[in-house]
Amino acid sequence: MPEEVLFKSESAQSRDEIASYLRSVAEKLEQGGSITLKAGSESVTMDPPARPTFEVKAEREGPTDGRGELSIEFELEWDENSEGAEGSSGSLEIE
User: Fold this and answer.
1) Which residues of the chain have pLDDT under 70?
2) Domain shared by 53 and 39, yes or no
3) Same domain, 41 and 22
4) Of 52, 69, 76, 81, which is most buried with the most CB atoms under 10 A?
5) What is the 3-state secondary structure (H, E, C) of the chain?
6) Same-domain check for residues 56 and 33
7) Residue 82, pLDDT score
8) Domain contains 8
9) Does some domain include residue 94?
10) C-alpha count within 13 angstroms, C-beta hemisphere, residue 44
11) Which residues contact 23 (CB under 8 A, 6 or more apart)?
12) Nearest alpha carbon to residue 49 among 24, 21, 77
C-alpha cells in the first residue's frame, strides 16, 4: 500500500524543546482533542481515535561499528474508517 506523507518536519532541537512538544501531544491525547502540526505554511490536523495503535521503536541505521544513526520513534496508527485498535502485544514500560 503506498504511503502519502501529509506533513514532515525535521530539525535539531534541545531535549527540553522536544519534551515540550511531546507534552503538548500528550495533553491533546488526554483531552481527546485533535492534534494540529504546523511548520511554516504547512499544517495538518488529525483526530486520533480513543484507542489508536501505539508503536515504539529503537533503531540503529547504518554501520554496526558505532558510526550509525540511532533513533527512538513514537508512532500512533489507526485506520481512517475505524475507531482504533483492539489488541495488544504486551505491556510497554518506559523508564
Assistant:
1) 1, 83-90, 95
2) no
3) yes
4) 52
5) CCCCCCCCCCCCCCHHHHHHHHHHHHHHHHHCCCEEEEECCEEEEECCCCECEEEEEEEEECCCCCCCEEEEEEEEECCCCCCECCCCCCCCCCC
6) no
7) 72
8) no
9) no
10) 9
11) none
12) 77
Q: Are 78 and 86 in contact (CB under 8 A)?
A: no
Q: Give domain status of residue 4, yes or no.
A: no
Cell of residue 69, nine digits: 544513526
List the domain range (segments joined by +) for residue 41: 13-47
State the residue for C-alpha cell 500528550. 26
Rounded CA-CA distance 71/74 in Å is 10
Residue 35 C-alpha cell reads as 492534534
| Number of domains the chain contains | 2
Question: Does residue 90 lie in a domain region?
Answer: no
Asked if residue 17 and residue 38 are part of one domain, the reply reads: yes
Q: Which three cell numbers stand for residue 26?
A: 500528550
* Contact in structure between 52 and 84 (CB atoms under 8 Å): yes
